[in-house]
Design brief:
Radius of gyration: 16 Å
Strand content: 15-25%
Largest sheet: 5 strands, mixed
Number of helices: 5
CATH architecture: 2-Layer Sandwich
Order of helices and strands: EHEEHEHHEHEE
Oligomer: single chain
CATH class: Alpha Beta
Helix content: 10-25%
Distance between the termini: 20 Å
Strand order of the largest sheet: 2-4-5-7-6
């Protein structure tokens, strides 16, 4: 009932739950590529309808604890993934310190941090974290924040402390890593517990990445606009 002709098969999360907070990083220069990503023409979170409805249930449960979801990425067109592939083959390393401080970017695919065919293209995967319900989001869009994503001084956007920045390609981002504090792990496990309760499962190398269960997901390639 939420689908539209603009996004056949996908819905804008705002039509399902306006309380979910967003900071769509690929509609900005503050991401591991360092530029706006192909296919992102608006800072929107699009999801397949059943995934969107499940995410709203997560939000409602968290809201009772004065916590909100903060979404970084939802549906991702294949042209964005293709952009990542071209970037991995280029010579630029402008965002290395902030996103992949200890790795060569040409190894990010084989290490499992980026996929050439992403679950995000199905509209059932979402990158997200937790933030206090009454907190504002600190947003940077120009790509000039060069703090090591795996350090204690990593860029903080007012979300709950998960021990690393979003899209930090490093062992510290593995959900069950031993490199973080007890409180940081509690925050990760809270996110994991509530997401799994409503049908999402976590990707073990990225504490922020969850996919809604589906047997035969469809892939899309329309722009986010």
């Amino acid at each position: 009932m939420f689908s539209s002709a603009t996004y056949p098969g996908l819905v804008d999360i705002e039509r399902v739950d306006k309380t979910i907070k967003k900071n769509i990083r690929y509609f900005s220069k503050y991401n591991f590529v360092g530029e706006f990503i192909d296919g992102y023409k608006a800072p929107k979170c699009l999801l397949e309808e059943s995934a969107a409805m499940a995410l709203s249930k997560v939000q409602k449960e968290l809201s009772a604890r004065a916590i909100s979801l903060l979404v970084y990425d939802c549906y991702r067109p294949q042209k964005a993934v293709d952009h990542f592939i071209r970037w991995s083959q280029s010579e630029t390393n402008a965002m290395k310190v902030a996103f992949y401080p200890n790795l060569k970017k040409e190894n990010l695919f084989k290490l499992g941090y980026i996929a050439k065919q992403s679950g995000h293209t199905t509209g059932r995967s979402v990158d997200l974290t937790l933030i206090s319900l009454d907190s504002s989001i600190k947003i940077y869009t120009d790509g000039n924040i060069m703090t090591n994503c795996a350090s204690e001084n990593h860029f903080k956007d007012n979300s709950l402390d998960m021990g690393s920045a979003y899209d930090c390609f490093h062992e510290i981002s593995h959900t069950q890593t031993h490199l973080i504090s007890e409180q940081q792990m509690k925050n990760r496990l809270l996110l994991k517990e509530v997401m799994e309760k409503y049908g999402f499962y976590n990707y073990s190398k990225e504490w922020w990445h969850y996919t809604f269960m589906s047997k035969n997901p469809k892939r899309y390639n329309q722009d986010v606009e």
